[in-house]
Write a structure and sequence with these properties.
Layout lengths: L4 H17 L2 H17 L1 H8 L5 H11 L5 H12 L6 H15 L3 E7 L5 H9 L10 E7 L6 E6 L2 E6 H14 L1
Parallel strand pairs: 1-2
Antiparallel strand pairs: 1-3, 3-4
Helix pairs in contact: 1-6, 2-6, 4-5
Length: 179
């Protein structure tokens, strides 16, 4: 996922402020909530992206939706709305989460398979590669994608292992076309 420079800058500013004020863990939890709400609510995204609704109305609605969050998080959301960057709110939250996880040494792992697999199989796949650090904490996200036909695609940070049937068939097809 490519994150905009805007999201990175806001997230970095929020991280610096939260570190100085000792609120990093609380804001980390709240940013997870913000990212979840923005991901799950298409109506809210449409409302925020509507250009003819003024920033004051968007701020009022955001104040009601996010009223249980800390003043710091509410102020960030208000600032983002007033600066016309509300379309980046989800990205800012995700980038902040990523930065805090990086500081805490948490590996982000995405495992894509064609079908649902057991916890034992997941552990076996993760243990079979040197991309996954055994002693590090990890956040494993399992994605089901029948289009890969079988096998798996393991993504750790910015590195990827593609052991899917689809990619192997594509490689065989390329080899036949070259010969």
């Amino acid at each position: 996922m490519l994150t905009s420079k805007v999201a990175k800058r806001y997230a970095q500013g929020l991280l610096e402020f939260s570190n100085e004020s000792g609120q990093t863990n609380a804001i980390f939890s709240e940013m997870k909530d913000v990212a979840k709400i923005m991901t799950e609510s298409q109506d809210l995204n449409r409302f925020f992206s509507t250009p003819y609704i003024d920033a004051q109305k968007k701020t009022e609605v955001a104040g009601e939706i996010f009223k249980g969050l800390s003043a710091t998080t509410q102020n960030l959301i208000t600032l983002v709305i007033k600066q016309g960057r509300v379309s980046q709110l989800k990205n800012i939250a995700q980038e902040f989460i990523k930065k805090v996880e990086d500081i805490n040494g948490i590996q982000r792992i995405t495992l894509t398979t064609a079908i649902e697999i057991s916890k034992e199989n997941i552990d076996q796949i993760l243990g079979s590669t040197n991309l996954v650090k055994a002693d590090a904490k990890s956040d494993v996200k399992l994605v089901i994608n029948p289009d890969i036909l079988g096998g798996y695609i393991l993504r750790v940070g910015d590195q990827q292992i593609d052991a899917s049937v689809k990619s192997k068939l594509s490689q065989i097809k390329k080899d036949f076309q070259l010969n």
